[in-house]
Write a structure and sequence with these properties.
Distance between the termini of chain A: 28 Å
CATH architecture of chain A: Up-down Bundle
Number of helices of chain A: 17
Number of helices of chain B: 12
Number of strands of chain B: 16
Oligomer: heterodimer
CATH topology of chain A: A middle domain of Talin 1
Order of helices and strands of chain B: HEHEHEEEEEEEHHEEHHEHEEEEHHHH
CATH class of chain A: Mainly Alpha
Strand content of chain B: 15-25%
Distance between the termini of chain B: 61 Å
CATH superfamily of chain A: M75 peptidase, HXXE motif
Order of helices and strands of chain A: HHHHHHHHHHHHHEEHHHH
Number of strands of chain A: 2
Helix content of chain B: 25-40%
Structural class of chain B: alpha+beta
Radius of gyration of chain A: 22 Å
Strand content of chain A: under 5%
Number of domains of chain A: 1
Structural class of chain A: mainly alpha
Helix content of chain A: 55-70%
Radius of gyration of chain B: 24 Å
């Protein structure tokens, strides 16, 4: 990972701090750091992880309904439910730290690519397919993309009548398994003894994960930058440079662009303490604005620029690779700019201004 | 007269130069105990602190590092497939990152998708290069996973027996002794086989360790303990497949691999089942799991080289709180306990005009790169080239304090049996016995100071 800027900015911070107090800084309003943290947890983290579980429940309900009455209409409902379930999950990737990382929920739910050869072989075999056997599969043979493969099919053209009995068994238990993982993930944030939300709220006051508040804010900013890098130079780059749409993450559902936009929406959520229409009383953005209004504007503008650039990737990412390429490269540029600002300016700001 | 003044000037010059020479005995310009990796140090304390590129890289080098980074996290799937085919057919995990989580040390479990522990196997005797002798039907490494329709070689079972001990001052600690057994063997296994569990090691600073001159490492060896300090470190010389020659071993828990290229190529082949130019034959060749496909080598040379470069250019996290009084006290105790006899603080890498980033760097890896007898408690009793059954390479301690951050909750030692730095210290034996005793007889305050120092690394 490229952290040249981070390194340089740290040196800059050290250099600056040795020059004494910055006399030009003007404090407009005081923003309580603790309140910023609490709002992040209460308005973004907790509702987001709860939402993932709610949408996975809805997906499972839609799949159960489809299995009971396998019509094209019910299949369409399941597909919509799948996309709805992707949304909160992809947004939560804007702050990929804590249990989701430590307990490997991410690879369990969202490994990519799907091991299609193995999934097809399993379905074609006479091995029992049960919840236990699906739970025991490696991440790359189940999860979101396992479900996507069955309900959308290659090219996204599968009809209800084409889905075989064995595919239905696989679908049923893969969906159940995913739902169970989202429940565990939610509980790891919200329920004692794991109670990761509490670990965050107590940053700098006895939290084992974050000895200081600075630790927490640096982690948040680092993860914001990391998802920009993952989308811009990771997920977009390979299919784009190789002009190969089979290398897209959600190519069966053509949901790739939406996934990307939701990832960066997650960055905006964290920065402005917003989720699903709810808005916190204060936020990291307000904290930055109170001491450096220009930087706050810069970050917000660059997030919007990236979101707008990605919205122009039409009709699907899979097609845009071939005939709308400048829209993809513009998005990559916008993401790289945002990433540099987060790794450079924002982390420098945190190192400079957050003392405890 | 003129001659005299010239001579006088020359004498003066010599004196001045001599004076400069004297000054050079003080810490050199580049010496800074925070900069664990010299110029290749990064200031990052987050869970991603092991995954940073050398700060000085740019342009082409940065591009190749990025390609290596992407390849490192690529998940392989069963062939045939449009993306990343070639997994297995038998393997330990499906990507580099699946074991080296966050470029760090992994989870000490086997056979799960997030497991980072693998088990080496051999039978008594040595091969034509003096290395371990492959177990018929199993090779030198157990692959405990397989693609659908193929049978894993075995299942590795790990059980722990926990015993609680007390420090002389009454504080307690627990050590869990692992036992490794095999079940579900796919075919008969010769009697007398030897197992060695190995946890995925962290990835940062490897390019710097590769750049330490062989002469520096060998100069620290004292196999016959001629200085009488009880420390008998020696180098491991191993067969390097990439260059087809005998070389100083540097990597792996027993220093059984000479170069990063061989290390990376062997991991692709043995751990993931991906053939490459250095190891073009499937790990299951000659076994019932062999795929018989004519798709070897499965990995592009450019990808192998990029991943090698990635591994060589991950920066070392800087030390924290070096001036903290407790840490200073801990550092003093670390020296008094003679921990530094093996965990050497400062080494200088060799001159390398072709790879400036690792050239002539003052680094603080806290290792001598030698293998030492660590006593029967840690022994795997499986010799690996010149490293005996009780011998292990001195683990570098740089970055140690970030293990619990990067790979929560943090595991230590070659098989992850230690769950804290305290446990890791208390597992030391053999040549390190007296250092361990030194630590255990310290007062609680001093023990904590030493741990605080170690956590600042």
């Amino acid at each position: 990972m490229k952290n040249t800027l981070l390194g340089l900015s740290c040196i800059a911070v050290v250099a600056l701090s040795s020059c004494g107090k910055d006399k030009t800084s003007v404090q407009n309003t005081t923003v309580d750091e603790q309140e910023v943290i609490t709002q992040f947890v209460n308005v973004v983290g907790n509702p987001n992880y709860a939402d993932i579980q709610v949408k996975a429940t809805a997906l499972n309900t839609a799949i159960v309904a489809f299995l009971a009455a396998p019509t094209d209409a019910n299949l369409t409902t399941a597909r919509v439910a799948w996309k709805n379930a992707r949304q909160p999950w992809e947004q939560a990737e804007g702050y990929l730290f804590g249990p989701v990382e430590d307990n490997y929920y991410d690879p369990t739910m969202d490994s990519w690519p799907l091991n299609r050869t193995d999934v097809d072989a399993l379905i074609g075999s006479s091995d029992a397919i049960t919840l236990t056997s699906v739970d025991a599969l490696d991440g790359f043979s189940k999860g979101f993309h396992g479900i996507e493969y069955i309900i959308f099919g290659p090219g996204g053209t599968r009809k209800a009548a084409d889905i075989t009995a064995r595919q239905k068994d696989y679908l049923k238990y893969t969906s159940e398994s995913l739902l169970n993982t989202t429940t565990t993930l939610r509980d790891s944030w919200l329920v004692k003894p794991a109670d990761y939300a509490n670990e965050i709220i107590n940053a700098g006051k006895g939290s084992t994960a974050f000895k200081t508040r600075k630790d927490l804010f640096v982690t948040i900013a680092t993860q914001m930058a990391a998802i920009c890098e993952e989308v811009g130079t990771g997920k977009m780059a390979e299919p784009f440079t190789e002009r190969d749409s089979t290398k897209d993450e959600s190519s069966y559902s053509h949901n790739t662009t939406t996934d990307f936009i939701n990832n960066i929406q997650g960055v905006l959520n964290v920065y402005t303490a917003t989720y699903n229409g709810a808005k916190g009383t204060t936020s990291l953005s307000a904290l930055v604005a109170s001491k450096n209004a220009a930087l706050d504007t810069k970050i917000k503008t660059q997030i919007q620029t990236a979101l707008s650039a990605m919205a122009l990737i039409t009709p699907t990412f899979e097609k845009a690779i071939y005939d709308n390429r400048d829209k993809i490269s513009n998005s990559q540029t916008a993401l790289a700019t945002l990433q540099a600002t987060l790794e450079g300016d924002l982390i420098t700001f945190i190192q400079t201004n957050i003392k405890d | 007269m003129k001659k005299l003044s010239v001579i006088g000037a020359l004498v003066l010059l010599v004196l001045l130069l001599a004076k400069c020479q004297k000054a050079a005995q003080f810490p050199a310009d580049k010496y800074d105990e925070r900069l664990s990796g010299g110029d290749a140090t990064v200031f990052d304390i987050t869970s991603h602190s092991f995954g940073n590129m050398f700060p000085a890289l740019s342009g082409y080098d940065a591009e190749v590092h990025g390609l290596g980074d992407a390849a490192f996290s690529k998940i392989f799937v069963t062939a045939p497939a449009p993306i990343n085919p070639g997994l297995g057919t038998i393997f330990n995990n499906n990507s580099c990152i699946s074991c080296h989580h966050n470029d760090g040390i992994g989870l000490p479990t086997a056979g799960e998708s997030n497991s980072s522990l693998l088990v080496r196997i051999s039978i008594p005797g040595t091969d034509e290069h003096g290395g371990p002798l492959a177990a018929p039907g199993y090779g030198l490494q157990l692959q405990d996973k397989a693609v659908f329709g193929k049978t894993p070689e075995c299942k590795v079972n790990i059980t722990y027996t926990e015993v609680v001990y007390n420090f002389p001052d009454g504080e307690s600690y627990a050590l869990r002794t692992p036992a490794y057994t095999l079940s579900n063997l796919y075919t008969a296994l010769s009697a007398g086989y030897m197992l060695s569990p190995r946890l995925a090691p962290p990835m940062y600073g490897l390019g710097l360790l590769e750049a330490i001159p062989e002469s520096t490492i060998v100069a620290m060896a004292d196999p016959n303990d001629s200085n009488g300090d009880g420390i008998k470190g020696h180098a491991n010389y191993v067969w390097d497949v990439a260059t087809q020659s005998r070389k100083l071993g540097r990597f792996g828990w027993k220093a059984n691999t000479a170069s990063l290229l061989t290390q990376v190529a062997a991991a692709y082949n043995q751990d993931i089942g991906i053939t490459n130019k250095i190891f073009p034959v499937e790990n299951s060749f000659g076994q019932s799991q062999y795929d018989g496909l004519k798709d070897d080598p499965e990995l592009a040379d450019s990808t192998l080289n990029a991943v090698r470069f990635y591994a060589a250019t991950l920066a070392v996290p800087a030390r924290r709180d070096v001036t903290d009084a407790t840490n200073k006290r801990g550092e003093l105790l670390f020296k008094q306990g003679k921990c530094e006899s093996c965990h050497r603080q400062t080494l200088t890498t060799g001159i390398n005009v072709a790879f400036k980033s690792v050239s002539n760097q003052v680094i603080h890896p806290y290792t001598d790169m030698l293998v030492h007898d660590m006593g029967p408690g840690l022994a795997d009793n499986r010799p690996d080239f010149l490293a005996g059954g009780q011998e292990w390479r001195t683990a570098p301690l740089w970055g140690l304090g970030l293990f619990e951050k990067v790979n929560y909750p943090g595991y230590y030692l070659h098989d992850g049996r230690a769950r804290s730095i305290t446990e890791a210290i208390m597992w030391h034996g053999g040549e390190a016995e007296s250092s361990k005793v030194f630590f255990s007889t310290l007062s609680k305050v001093d023990r904590d100071a030493m741990l605080s120092f170690l956590k600042s690394l």
